[in-house]
Write a structure and sequence with these properties.
549 residues; mainly alpha; Cytochrome Bc1 Complex, Chain C; two-stranded antiparallel sheet; 61% helix
């Protein structure tokens, strides 16, 4: 009996005594917040394992590093446009008139312990953050991960990318060095090109004539408070939706629209994510320590009458600058007003192109009329038109990036800047079309290869001589898992208007939107965009005999 009492006096190995302080706190929190039930339901949630899924984590961890380093820099930076005479540690600039913002940037770089390292980590993290978001969105785009129910999450990610670009622009401009000041001057010129209200917008932003003394104090709260706060909320909402919708996964055995194959959140995924965070942070610190970036002391303070040679924005703004640099200097003079088309047209195209990217999931959903949920990703080769559009946009970006740096390209490659400008003007129209056509043909070729592999197997490298003297290579049948991956995609019919006359001979009304939708559906998902995948009968007919060669 004593032995029985000693055993029954313990529940799960715990003492039968009164609960400890930690247990009381856990019970108190669970009774008010329901943490135990929430954790029990979600901590074992499965996440697929694929290298491309780490792109989103790189964005998240870079954003965390940006916040941490930004807080440190905020403690020492003084966002003031008041002019002072520098007399600090960097002797080449002693006696030079500059703003207090530039002076405090020099103080951070040369006098604050670890200041230059933190500045460079902050800048590198910002570049990696925007790069990671763009590559992550391209992965989402090419694989169709934006489809229902993730259209809203695509908009969140798109908004984060836009805000990341604007935040980068505002942060890039805060030091008030000659390079960033040239960038602000470029932005002010683009704002002035807006018809009717351009001058008013410029005066409102700069507090009067350019450059004024108000732009740095105004950009500072936008950069350190407003935009990061909005982005933090969007990141939280983005992660909540990822968690709620469950993660997408690439096609494979055991994976369907309702089943996830992967690792549990606790302890496997959490441990891997934690280790990956320190890897990303370590790489950013390594880059900040050995790779110099934005040496403002080499440019000097901003002066409106000077401009830096080879002034270039960070790469993510090269798209907009390339549009303006390669545009002819068209202008219209009417009724005493000048409309600068050479600036206003590309200045308008930049947001329009980005808006089309943000709206694409809704456009494709309207074209297909598909209202189902999709949790299995597309292989890019199986949707060649969408893949071609993505590659065409990337090629356009690359061409305009060359245009935005035409002076740097000219000096480094010893080419004529006029030749580069005309090349970009022509390539803007030609290269995206060629990229689309080539990408589509490559995707169709890969579809044909997949079909051939399913029917005939993979090449084994074994050469066999047939009785009549012919030499052939023996093919080995594919495993069932690989057969499933190559044939799981759907090839449904595209949207069509149907007969224009009904059974009673009455002509059906067909709207313009229906005609446009049908033409787009045929162009994007019609017979010319896919190679029919093998049927079960074709596979059985070939695999039943001696056809594996």
């Amino acid at each position: 009996m004593d032995g029985a009492r000693s055993v029954n006096g313990r529940a799960g190995g715990r003492s039968s005594g009164p609960p400890g302080g930690g247990e009381k706190l856990a019970d108190w929190a669970d009774g008010r917040l329901g943490l135990y039930g929430l954790a029990k339901a979600n901590m074992r949630k499965l996440f697929p394992d694929h290298p491309s899924f780490m792109l989103g984590e790189i964005c998240l961890y870079s954003f965390i590093v940006i916040i941490l380093t930004g807080i440190y820099l905020t403690l020492f930076f003084e966002p003031s446009g008041v002019e002072v005479v520098y007399n600090g540690s960097y002797e080449p600039l002693n006696g030079i008139v500059m703003t207090r913002a530039f002076e405090s940037t020099l103080d951070i770089s040369f006098d604050v312990r670890g200041g230059l390292l933190i500045r460079q980590i902050h800048h590198w993290a910002a570049l990696v953050f925007v790069t990671g978001m763009l590559v992550h969105m391209m992965r989402v785009f090419f694989t169709g991960a934006f489809r229902k129910p993730r259209e809203v999450n695509w908009v969140f990610g798109w908004t984060l990318l836009m805000l990341g670009i604007i935040t980068g622009l505002t942060g890039y401009s805060l030091p008030d060095d000659l390079l960033s000041g040239t960038g602000i001057r470029f932005a002010q010129g683009a704002i002035l090109s807006v018809p009717i209200v351009g001058t008013y917008l410029s005066f409102f932003l700069f507090g009067g004539e350019f450059p004024g003394h108000d732009i740095i104090p105004r950009l500072f709260p936008i950069h350190v408070l407003l935009l990061p706060g909005i982005m933090l909320g969007l990141v939280t909402a983005h992660l909540i939706l990822v968690f709620y919708h469950k993660h997408t996964q690439f096609p494979g055995p055991g994976r369907d629209e309702k089943t996830v194959v992967g690792m549990p959140l606790l302890p496997v995924y959490t441990a891997k994510a934690g280790g990956f965070f320190f890897l990303v942070f370590g790489m950013l610190a390594f880059m900040g320590g050995i790779a110099q970036i934005n040496p403002v002391w080499a440019f000097g303070p901003y002066r409106p009458d000077l401009v830096t040679t080879g002034a270039q924005p960070d790469w993510y703004l090269g798209f907009s600058e390339g549009l303006i640099r390669v545009m002819p200097g068209w202008e219209i003079n009417a009724w005493g007003h000048t409309l600068q088309l050479g600036v206003f047209i590309p200045f308008s195209l930049f947001p329009l192109i980005l808006a089309a990217i943000g709206a694409y999931p809704f456009i494709e959903a309207w074209i297909t009329g598909d209202k189902r949920e999709h949790h299995i990703l597309d292989r890019p080769r199986n949707v060649p038109v969408r893949t071609g559009l993505g590659v065409a946009w990337l090629s356009l970006y690359a061409v305009l990036l060359i245009g935005g740096g035409n002076d740097v390209v000219a000096t480094h490659l010893h080419l004529s800047i006029n030749a580069i400008t005309w090349f970009v003007r022509i390539a803007v129209f030609v290269v995206p079309v060629l990229a689309f056509v080539v990408t589509k043909r490559v995707c169709l070729g890969l579809q044909r290869r997949d079909r051939d592999k399913v029917l005939h197997g993979r090449e084994s490298g074994i050469i066999r001589r047939l009785p009549h003297g012919e030499y052939v290579e023996v093919h080995e049948p594919l495993a069932q898992a690989q057969l499933h991956t190559l044939t799981q995609h759907e090839q449904n019919g595209h949207y069509e208007i149907g007969p224009l006359v009904d059974a009673n001979g009455v002509r059906r009304p067909v709207s313009t939107s229906m005609r446009v939708r049908a033409r787009l559906a045929r162009a994007m998902f019609g017979p010319e965009t896919r190679i029919p995948k093998p049927t079960v009968e074709e596979y059985r007919q070939i695999s039943s005999g001696d056809h594996q060669h």
